[in-house]
Amino acid sequence: MRADPDGDNRDVRYRTAAGTVVGAVVLAVLGALMGPQWSPVPLTDPLTVQTSATAITGAVEAGPYPVRASVLTVALDGADVDAQLLMPVGVEGDVPAVVFVHGAGTGKFTDAFLDQARSLAEHGVATLVPDKRLDTYTLRHRDYVEMAGDYLRSVDRLRRVDGVDPARVGVYAESEGAWIAPVMAADEPGIAFVVLASAPVVPPRQQAAFAVDSYLRNTGVPQQVFRAIPRAVGMSLPGGGLDYADFDVAPYQRRMTQPVLVVYGTADASMPVVQGAEQIIRDLAIAGNTQYTVRYYRGADHGIRVDEIVAPAFLDDLSGWVLGLPATGAAYPRIAGDQPSQLYWAGPVPQPRWLGDGDVLLVLVAGAVGLLVLLPAGRLAVVGVQHLRGREPGPGRDRTLTRRLALLSGASVATVVALVWYLVEVARLAVGYERNGWIVQGGWIAVRVLGLVAVYAAAAVVVRLRRLRRAGEPMAHGVLGHVVLWGTCAASAALLVVLAYWGVYQLGI
């Protein structure tokens, strides 16, 4: 009796389809079990402004004064930095002064705080903007306590400038600098006042997760993509470092006794604008400090800019608050400006259970991709050498199995590449506050389709291997053939597990 080829083909198709479904479900379950879910807690305690006007009672108006600029050298421990001093000209008596503390990045006085420093100086407040020290500042290593010590040297230097009142020297810190300024204020109670602009307040890891969540929601990504947040933010950096990611500034804020001006833009999606102000107020209360002023500026971004220009109202309020101290330190209204909105709490980030080690993840992906590229190339090289030496080639490979293995390896690598591309593009759109449905929605569909093709290819390989075994035919020939076969299967399986970890096979579980 002859075998029915149509029946055999139907059986192969059925088994391959069933294997694809089972494989996708298994990967979905595995992906859900491997790492934390992302379920941010809604913020249900909104901070209500007392008035929409940001003007500060008791603020002093002065100037405008001519400004004299000069460059000073600040000696740090093991390094020197240049700093630009702006002095108001024509003011009677010694003036208050401000040292600026940089946010993230490579801050230079030539391009940082230009509007804030100039405006303060024109209103009668001396300003010092030091270059940021970079020899101890990298992505992997940042010591905020050590950095606070460096900036305190700038405070000491400014106190010795003729015409500056050493008892009225304060600090202006923006973004990442707001993790540094409270350390300065706690360690040096003689600092006269503190301005915290766009302060993250929570530890860097929590702030990063909050910012990524906000950016992704603004970009409109599918819900499945959010699972990647704790897995990316909670992962250790390949090569080590990032110890500062869990730095907690709260203990230092609870020792601040100076008047504090807290400033946010309501268009800043990267900061917990409600939670941040609430926590600062609570921390100051623990220190017995009731001298706080909170201001929100409508449409202002992370740099308190509206349409790329520092909000004029903010500049006026800043100088008026500084000049009006100590009366303005606790003046009504305490909380004013545009009503802030924060959807979710910036809470602790769940830690990955399996692939949270960046070194392991990098080695796993790079090793698997390398195997899938090198194994076929190595086999061709060996066969070529044998041909040049006149040796007869070994038994031929099963062509059907070879094609399916090629599809499996190609689809696995292509899905990894597509996922990386997708995440990079989404990050670019998110940082730029842009939307692009073709990339955000279409790109995710493309990644998942490629992932299913890889699962289909894996099922097809399993079906073919079972048929070869039942027919008593070898699955591979020789040591090299077995290395290529099982190396390809193992490397592809590793990539499929990684893809499941990053949510490619989610089924709402």
TrEMBL record:
Native species: Cellulomonas pakistanensis
Limits of the BAAT/Acyl-CoA thioester hydrolase C-terminal domain: 155-305
PANTHER family linked: ESTERASE ESTD
Superkingdom per UniProt: Bacteria
Record keywords: Membrane, Transmembrane, Transmembrane helix
The keyword Membrane is assigned to this record: yes
A GO term, aspect molecular function: carboxylic ester hydrolase activity
Transmembrane segments: 12-34, 360-385, 405-424, 444-463, 483-504
InterPro entries cross-referenced by the UniProt entry: AB_hydrolase_Est10, AB_hydrolase_fold, BAAT_C
Full protein name: BAAT/Acyl-CoA thioester hydrolase C-terminal domain-containing protein
